[in-house]
Design goal:
heterodimer; A: mainly beta; 14% helix; globular; B: eight-stranded mixed β-sheet
Chain lengths: 145, 798
Amino acid sequence: MSELYLFAHIAGTPVAVRTDEVQAVVKISEISPVPAVPVQVAGLAALRSRVLTVIDVAALIDPKLADAENRSYAIVCDISGHIYGMLVDKVSDIRAVSEPALPLHGKTDAAWAHYAEGVIENDGEAHLLVSLRNFIENSAIGLAA
Amino acid sequence: MDELLGEFIAETQETLEALSSIIVAWEADPCDRDRLDSVFRFFHTVKGSCGFLNLPRFERLSHAAEDVLSKVREGNLTPNPATISAVLSVMDRIAELCSALAAGTTPPLENDDFLIEALRHSQTPEGQAESEAEVSNPAAVADQKGKATAGPRTIRLPLSLIDQLMNGVSDMVLSRNELSRKLRDRESDPELEIAFERLSSCIADMRDTISKTRMQRVERLFMAIPRMVRDLSRDLGKNIELTLEGGDVEMDREMVEMVVDPLTHIVRNSIDHGIEMPTDRIAAGKSETGHLRLSARQSGSHILIEVVDDGRGINVDAVVRKIISTGVMTEQEVARLSEQERLDLIFSPGLSTAQQVTSISGRGVGMDVVRANVERVGGIITLTNEPGQGLTITMRVPLTLTIIPGLILRAGGQLFAIPRSSVIEILHDNNSTIDISRLGGADVATIRGVRHSMVDLETVIGLEKAVQSTPRTIMVVRSVSGMPYALAVSNVENHEELVIRPAAPIIMSSGIFAGMTLPDNGQPMLLLDAGGIAQAAQLPLDQTRRENLAANDLGSEADRGERHSALQFIELSGIERLIRLSLVERVEDVPIDAFGCIASQPYARIEGRLLPCVYSVTPEIAGQEDSITCLRIRDGLREVCYPVRTICDIFEISDDLDMAAPNGHVAGLAIVDGRQIEVVDNFALFASIPDIEITTEQSMRCVIVDGDDNWNREILMPLLAQAGYDVAIGATPTQNDIVLRMGSDKNDPPIAIDPQIPLVRLRPNSKPTGVGDNSIYRYDRAGLLQAIATVSKGRKSA
């Protein structure tokens, strides 16, 4: 059974996202900053009448990589009734992959360990399979680690 | 068919919900015909519909219940508690079957006969005799049905459809705003403008109407409570009187759903753990019946839901013990907490103070879950505990997803919104009616004689204060306790109707935002939570101070307690203060070289004695003066010296401070002639000086016998001098002296000493040489001073 994946790069790492989690990929033009929140929250952005909470995922992986201004593409998703925009470095492909996710090999970097679920092969390149939900729900654990 | 079934389920569930409160009321008053009719009508409707839908289990159950109820209606049967319980369990079974049907799962396979049997048995014998006859009264039923349809007609809509409508309206508002901006850039065209105005007002009306579709009366939240209280109190053998208030307050439909679970949990806890057994209540001198009060009211943009019981309250010590035993916190950590923080430990995960697990509560799912649920919707939960007297739990939840009038303000270069309802007043900081002062690091804004805690928004949210040429804006806003405080921002930009949506949990967790909004400029911004900001800034806004303030507002001097004379003076640092005049024994000029410091405790040498000084006097702060004016303050036993620059005046001030703000030696502020002056905290003043007596009786002299010994001369003598004793070295002791001598009798120097003179013997080693050795180790400072003090006391009393 093949499944559709969105392939993108986050913090320089190739990742795959199940498309049923993805509502859209949009170019974010203007982000209103939000004070007094964790570093990965880049701010708020308007998408027509909806307001996205923009998450700079790279900052979640490594706070030093926070650079929301230079990341303009965001994956829009709905997690527990809230709409988020997950900033990515770039989006490369959307494709159906017939093989199931492979298990992780080697010791995954601690920063990724809370988010990676497996490995998806696309065109001979390995992508970390991530769930967008984990970026929101596991972020507290991730930062504590 | 599916559609019909869905409608049947939805309708049945809704009616069941509405009925659960009615049936309890009916139990209290079985003669209440209206309530009986509503219950009867429910079973009759269910029976009718399920026959058609082919749901035999529903039919049997409802038929049996209808049977019994119809007898009650005809007066052939008086309902007793057993009847009611049986009817209720039939209703519960119907609810179970309904949810199973709705979820598409297999209905629970329990035998309905048991329930039906229970119904039959609950009847009195006379009723049983007639149970064979079908005694439904068709005329009456038709009549009831006619009545039921007379109410406003309603249809059922999925919530998602309303959400879509809401979003559509928001989109429409945004595009109207865009159009409005474009129109402004063009040449004015009156006809076009009139058309646009019409469109605008249509959209505004529509937005109002749509937002109303989401509102629901809080009554719905309370609907299940009477039934629950009835069942629980019966199970536990407690008597509880329930009062529900404020059911007509409206709140967002979604919010109602989010609050049901926490509320249910709190009520369960109150009944299970809070309210005592009737015998315990009588023993505690309370009425046998426990009281439980639920109330809802709107406060600004929030709904306050209060659960008040008169039970035993929370045993904070038990909570603390439990916390320590589970290892969440150590004893030391707990000791540092304030009383309120200790009480809040009840919200720690996995905590249950119940002695045993009961079927009702105490399963480890506790207040932590309740708090998490309330906070998830941007609410706040607070406890007011009166051990032995009861507990009040207040849930404060926002009316989110509504359109509220808001103010847009700028702080630290960013834009924020705040509900207009939480803002009382807006002023510029250069306004003559406002006076901003700093007291112990805290900002205080006095606006027309009323003092408010003040905080800069930038400080709370961690932004840089932007440099600006225009005056800053001070907003007086309401806090959670209802007591206003002053919030300073760069400026207020605009006011607008704002569509508020809940913000993502990661943003809400900061506690200072209430939601987010997309105003007309299309730039998303966050809605500030005035109460959350006060909490984040840790402003002291509790109830007692509010009363203090209220009394001040009234300006009724008679209510303000006793008055006393206070001396106004200016400290060397230039600060103006007041002190209770009766404590000031005298005022004296002390030469500058009489001030000194011992081990960081400043002192002044006055009349040959050392008096502790409130603060140290150094040449820098003394300036050119040769002598410093000092207040000599006495608490009856001890005396303190308070150096001042000048003494100004004497006023009559009230014993109640205008603002209590204990900080160091300052108790708070008093208003004198329209100015606020710090009042000295006399208690803190004396409490802060060291307990060691620096002064002593003049007549007491310590004689060190061996004047040649270096240790005696260089170490012992200064120590005694410092402790305030006169020291004579190598002198011949007289009757009034104390003799200090090193070593044992054998190495006594050949000086004849009157054995009547008290002797304190010192030894060079820390360990005593034998049992009879009552000498003191020479480096045991406390022991040595104690021994001398004991001797001198003995002398005085003799």
